Amino acid sequence: MWDERDEEDQGTMEAIDVDRFRQLLEGGEQPEEDTEDYTPIEVKSTQHIERMKQEEQKKENVLSAKQAANEVFDWLESILTAIIAIVLIFTFVLRVNTVSGTSMDPTLQDGQKLIVTDLFYTPNYNDIVIIQAANLDGGIPIVKRIIGLPGDRINIDFDNGVVYRNGEPLAIEIGEDEAKYEDGHTIADYTYRPLEMVSGQDYYVPEGHYFVLGDNRNNSKDSRLLSEIGFVNGNYIAGHAIFSIFPFDTFGAV
Asked: Is 66 a catalytic residue?
């Protein structure tokens, strides 16, 4: 018996796509192609991995060798720079002078080596200086101590061995070591030897000149020898001693 509902259902059926139906009958609906990217997995053998490790090790060794070479080069460069700096310093700033004789005993010894400089140097009392001039003691550098500056009045009482500067005696004290100290530095003995000076007479230090004495007062050729050394022109002062480097027991500031 015909049902109206069936007729309604038939009336509402969708039309079948013939081409799609034929495609289903022939082989079914093909799935859409997967477009997702996949990264291939590289499979390596143990031998290949070992070879790669060896290559990496070689690269590390080369890099280490380069770094070591660079370090050695930097080290050598630093040493060379230091040597050049030392040469320049000892050429233009510092010099090494050797004490000759015993005129500076007990302060300095014969053969003692001193570091001397004239950089920014202005002579002052009690400085130990190197004096060099063709007409002084045969042109050989001499080492003395400055006692008088330009304009000072020097008077030496050779009977009592006392040096006066501008009317004031340079006091001599006996230290705990029983050494004699004149104006704060050691001397071998009182100043008894006049050489060419006259005891008790005033001597004025000319402008630009200095009066020098050796610490071994009775065995020293210095400004008392007026005809050979006398008052020393400041241009003849090559510098002042600042350090002793030999013998090693004298190593230190002068």
From this structure: no
Residue partners of 183: CB distance under 8 A and separation at least 6: 125, 126, 170, 171
**Res 20: pLDDT:** 67
d(CA 131, CA 212): 10
Structure tokens at 55: 């290559």
Q: Which of 64, 66, 100, 103 is catalytic?
A: 103
pLDDT at res. 234: 96
Identify whether 144 is a catalytic site residue: yes
When the pLDDT of each residue in the chain is averaged and rounded to a whole number, the result is 85
Instruction: Confirm if 209 and 218 have CB atoms less than 8 A apart.
Output: no
Report how far residue 33's alpha carbon sits from residue 71's, in angstroms, rounded to the nearest whole number.
61
Q: 46 pairs with which residues across the strands?
A: none
Distance, in Å, from the CA atom of 215 to the CA atom of 111, rounded to the nearest integer, reads 16
Taking only the tens place, the pLDDT of each residue in 211-233 is 999 999 999 999 999 998 999 99
Query: Given 45, 113, 144, 220, which residue is catalytic?
Result: 144
The model's confidence at residue 91, banded by pLDDT at 50, 70 and 90, is low
Phi/psi-derived region of residue 112, left when phi > 0, alpha when psi is between -120 and 50, beta in every other case: beta
